[in-house]
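Protein modeling request. Please complete all fields; requests missing the sequence field cannot be processed.
Requester role: graduate student
Desired output: 3D structure, token encoding
Chains: 1
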Amino acid sequence: MKRIIGLSFTMVLIFVFFNGQGFSEKELSPPLLKAKSKSISLRLESTTIQSLNSSNPSQQVHGSYQNNTNACAGCHDTHNSSSDQLLKTDGVYNTCVACHDGTMGNYYNVFSPSTAGTFSGSTGGNPSMHNSSGALTIKAAPGGIIGSQISDDEIKTKDGDWTAEFNCASCHSPHGSYSDRLLQYNPNNMGNTDMKKGGNKAVLVPVYTYSQDILTHKQSDSFILIRGTKEQLGVSDNKIQDSDTVIALYEWDKDKYNRSETPWLYGIDYGVQTTYWTALYKTETPDYTKNANGDYVNIIDFNDSDVHFQFDKGYVYTSGSQLNAAKRGDIAQAYVVKLDKVKIATEGDTSIYAISEAALYQGPVDPEGSAISDPSINKVRNSNGQLIAIGLGTAMSKFCSACHTDYLSHSSKEVGYFNTTDHRHSTDLDQLNCVRCHFAHGTDVTIMKDAQGYTLRDLMSVNNWDESTAKAYLLDTNPDSALKKFTDTAVCYACHGNLATQQVYNNPYAALDQEKNMPDLVPYSEQKTH
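Delivered output (530 residues):
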């Protein structure tokens, strides 16, 4: 397996630096056209984001803003904006591609092939892309709410932002994120949607006072909130005094409750009554009674004095007695996706990393062999509820399923949240996740592979084919090539045609070249366990 991962790193380097050299740029499929916008102030005196961040540490573009930042002016115009949200250009998509069309360097060019795929593509290459221009709404996602065939009025009553415009910000958070690649911390508002409906929110979780018995005895709930001191809860925070009261979220994990470190979300819904995404209740059910000052009497939220919600760390504390009254809590949890990376270059004081393709399948292993992510972020169980794997791949599938809800499944026997009749492909294991078969941005004949992992460039160099022959061989015949990494159903054959699966026999073209093919499937017994 080590040899396979090492070769996957090499493949990543080829992917990152391949910018269509030797191939002419073809017509882009509208409306995903490169922006021809005017220069914006974000560029200052630098030519790349890396050098900008290095020479002007207070000017981080997408988060980590310092108190003297001028980064806001790169995308927003305070008084004379041409778009909603005070954006300098017309809409989210045009604002993003004003820089990410290669202006800031090829590494940030979404129209250049990368491990995320490409938004570029020729009509002759039978491309398909995530149409993030805003022309579609989130409800158009296959495997999402549209599969239930309900009306727009009914859709508006469902959890999730299904009627919202689908654009770059649907998947990426421009102002900072808990994940790599600025992946959205609350995609489709699923961080604020009940887990029973496919979201990431623990609803009306009971509060218990800390004891060893509580930790080791399964309650009726998989998630519970535990109240205690920072020492009891294992919280390391110098701002919290030893005598302070702390409440944190715990999840049952095979034989005990473990503290979850997933960040909490602090959004607010305004309506007849204000609803805090994350809040604690002094009653068994939310009671929205207000006092003379208009404050909720039985709700503890981040407006309460001397109550400190550490949303990014996943706990709340106080030096007073307010938390002693908490009986239940709604905990909206952020989505966190960490991707294993390999260093490919250094520009100034900034290291440039590419995503390891092997990491997208196999979990947390970096070039030095140490884990990058916190394994508590994501856990995988089998049908008996036993923890069988922890890693990065499943977090990626969970992220994708925020919109493609019904496609997250442990087996073909599981049903979806909206469509309860269709059988599903397994997608919730490290080595069986969405990005094993699909690109995030888009696909095209120039970046697809065959079942043995050969790309257009490989076929031209290894087989000595000319470009037209190689393209004809790799051309996906499906009118919608569905973001696939592999052409046609070679995406199936890449797994099911190899020696490990033993499903195809006596075939001279069996995909046995595991060095270039996707990594072998790892038996449960060999997967990383908690």
